[in-house]
């Protein structure tokens, strides 16, 4: 992947993603940056996030029913999303999922890649629901 030029703004976006202990969405990344750098625009953050994804420096996590989230970990791994608060976390599998064209019917598609996002209830939402 072609690396584009490094700008101060791209560096701020990169730092916000790599410093995050969670998997923030673009709006959360913008909010974290704008606290320290109020002149940065939402469009600049979104554009630089897309650029970092295209360059292979940040991983985009596509989830159903919500905005994309972003991950600093590039190695192949899986995620779980809370069905209530939409938080995204890593999932540790004890056995690797092996999906290939030999294992599944792709209906004529050539399998290039896949993403798996599990759905569940995070510990915080579980506790809040138990307290109701």
What would you say about this model in short?
With 132 residues, the chain is α+β, with helices and mostly antiparallel strands. It has 4 helices and 5 strands. It has 2 domains: 62 residues, Arc Repressor Mutant, subunit A (Orthogonal Bundle); 59 residues, Dna Ligase, domain 1.
Fill in the keyword field for this structure.
alpha+beta, two-stranded antiparallel ribbon, 14% strand, 5 strands, 2 domains, three-stranded mixed β-sheet, single chain, Dna Ligase, domain 1, flat, 4 helices, 34% helix, Arc Repressor Mutant, subunit A, 132 residues
With strands numbered from the N-terminus, the spatial order across the biggest sheet is 4-3-5
Average residue-wise pLDDT: 88
Question: Based on CA inertia axes, which overall geometry fits?
Answer: flat
The CATH class assignment of the largest domain is Mainly Alpha
Give the H and E element order.
Answer: HHHEEEEEH
Strand portion = 5-15%
* Helical stretch tally: 4
End-to-end distance: 50 Å
Helix content: 25-40%
Can you tell me the CATH superfamily of the largest domain?
Answer: Winged helix-like DNA-binding domain superfamily/Winged helix DNA-binding domain
Strands, total number: 5
Uncertain ranges: none
CATH topology of the largest domain: Arc Repressor Mutant, subunit A
**How is the main sheet built?**
3 strands, mixed
């Amino acid at each position: 992947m072609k690396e584009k030029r490094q700008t101060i703004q791209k560096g701020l976006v990169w730092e916000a993603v790599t410093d995050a202990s969670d998997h923030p969405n673009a709006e959360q990344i913008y909010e974290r940056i704008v606290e320290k750098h109020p002149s940065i625009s939402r469009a600049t953050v979104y554009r630089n996030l897309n650029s970092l994804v295209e360059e292979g420096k940040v991983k985009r996590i596509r989830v159903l029913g919500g905005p994309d989230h972003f991950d600093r970990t590039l190695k192949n791994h899986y995620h779980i999303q809370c069905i209530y608060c939409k938080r995204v976390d890593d999932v540790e599998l004890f056995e690797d999922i092996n999906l290939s064209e030999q294992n599944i019917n792709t209906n004529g598609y050539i399998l290039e890649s896949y993403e798996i996002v599990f759905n569940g209830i995070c510990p915080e939402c579980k506790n809040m629901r138990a307290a109701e």
